[in-house]
Write a structure and sequence with these properties.
47% of the residues lie in helices and 20% in strands. It is built from 16 helices and 21 strands. Strand 3 and strand 4 form a beta hairpin.
Length: 692
Amino acid sequence: MSSAMTKRSRAIWAGMNLADWATLAIVLVYGVLRGLRQIYPRTPVSGFLFFLAICGAVYWLVRGWLWARAHLLWSLRNRLIMAYVFIAVVPVLLLLAMAGLAAYLLYWQLGSYVIYTQMEQREERVGVVASAMATSYAVEATSGHSAAAQALPVESGTYIKNAMTELPGLKIETGNGEELLSKSDEGVRNRFRGLVFSHGQLVLRGVVVRPTPAGRILVSVTVPITPELLETLPTELGPIQFNVLRPEAGDIDSEVPVVVNTQRFNSVQQIGTRGRTVPKAMNPFDKLINGIVGLDVLDMDQKQGDQKQGDQKRGQAGAVRVFASFSTRPSLLNRRLFSPLGDLGGAAATALLVVGAVFLLIEIGSLVTGIILTRTITTAVDSLYSATQHVLEGDLSYRVRLPHRDQLAALGESFNSMTQSVSTLIEEQRQRQKLENELSIAHEVQQQLFPRALPNLQGIDIEAICRPARVVSGDYYDFIRISPTRLAIALADISGKGISAALLMANVQAALRSDVLRYRDKASGAQGEEIDTAEIVAHLNRHLFRNTSDERYATCFFGVYDAETRQLHYTNAGHLPPIYICNGNIRRLETGGMVVGLFNDVPFQQGAVEIGRGGMLVAYSDGLIEPENVYGEEFGIVRLIDVVTRNKDASSHETAEAMVRAAEEWSGTPDQADDMTVIVMRFPGTSAEARA
């Protein structure tokens, strides 16, 4: 593995070009400078270098993706792993991130809601105190007590003491707060309550007007926003801080501006709790929640009318805004959230965590199961790939071994069967090639058995064609020169096809030639000595019967032509009768007997034909008349005679070619069903015609 990694690393370094080295150097230089800046803050890092580093990083991301797609993703295992990552892991991570963000926003909203409602309760409490004191003053004024026009001491009365406990710094006044009545949001002009920023201080104000016999009485309650007041807020919110901000005006900038919705603010006042701290996390999911909420405030320090421009020059461009921030943990907010459930609140939170843990375990189990299944698939594919490499190297004995009983294992068995079949086919191909070589040699040997050159006999135009259906032929034709004026003609068709027929054809050729030559030597070339064709065919029959099996036989036509007497003596042993055409008359040469090789003593007869001037003899095998067309009709002897008749004035070569071509065109297929052999002999009237 380490050597493979080393080779891969060397290949990567060797494949890097100039652009790769340049971008890598830029990224490394920027990274080094950023690291030095953490130690030495004055280390210069230009913006242009940052831009180049970003471009280099993007370049390497693209290069890395292309390299990974070409190398890492080539493996099926890596592809499946990436598929599982994108299908299962990435969505789960996104869902967890979304759930975490939603939980954070939920707890933020919960904390903000608690602060907002708690401040609303205190505002309402201030309003209630103001209403109660105004009512008390009005009752005293109705009773005629002159002291009603004076502010009551804040220490008097149990009600006031309780209010001061809940609202530290509570202060009650009469005749103050008239300007707030017109700012009331409740649609009434006789009371006001809310958060007010006045004289640079943030306070809770409650103003109530009550009618008296002497006119009316105005009661104002003021509670300053102090750390003591913030301490009365729920402890589950953790440290709390109120920040009063005023928008900046013109070109006047503060040292530390605060930006909210693209608007810059200056901090006017900050109020926070003193003794509160954020407790330690109870579990890894008990993260710190930092929240902030905006509170409604009435800015009494904002000048109106002509003074507004002067205030803007001093940086006061609008009303102040109040933001309350807090720092807490989900465990603290859960305690408050589930407080109505009492002891069941902890159980509910625990149940939620248990369900989440179970879901997480199920997801982990699913991921592990997917990895195991992926491994079984990729192992099988890797085994098949290794097998293909062995086959590529020529090792067909390699077999795939898969331990599982599934479709991939069946595929492995199919691969093993395929390699076995391929091995068998290759061996058969070798044997076939060997046989074809032997057939090629046999074809060459057989061609030597046919006449190398057609005989040149005065007064005869001879042509012979043999087209085997296979490499070797079972048809046999021969011309044997007996004397200057006599020529023996032989045409035989051996039963069967292929090698066996070719071997029997060679046997027939040897036996027939030896017998004819024996007769020629016996006659010593004497003119007038006739050769008995029937006797020669009988000798051939006995020879084949004795030297071949019972089912082997041959049809044979054997004739001897004497140019001096113009006589053709022949014997037809079961062969298709040759056609003799002269002066429009057609004669079939049928005299002879049955096929040779089936029976031992068979009588054969000799026939004779006187060859007239301008006659033509056509001998052929059955392969020339038996081809069938698409309708199953044979070419037949009638069509063959028609072709010969239409070419009666052509040469022997042209006539023979026309006959073979007509039979092939009739079948319409390039494959022959049987060997085609034809002999054409034309007998012109004079020697000059023969030479022409």
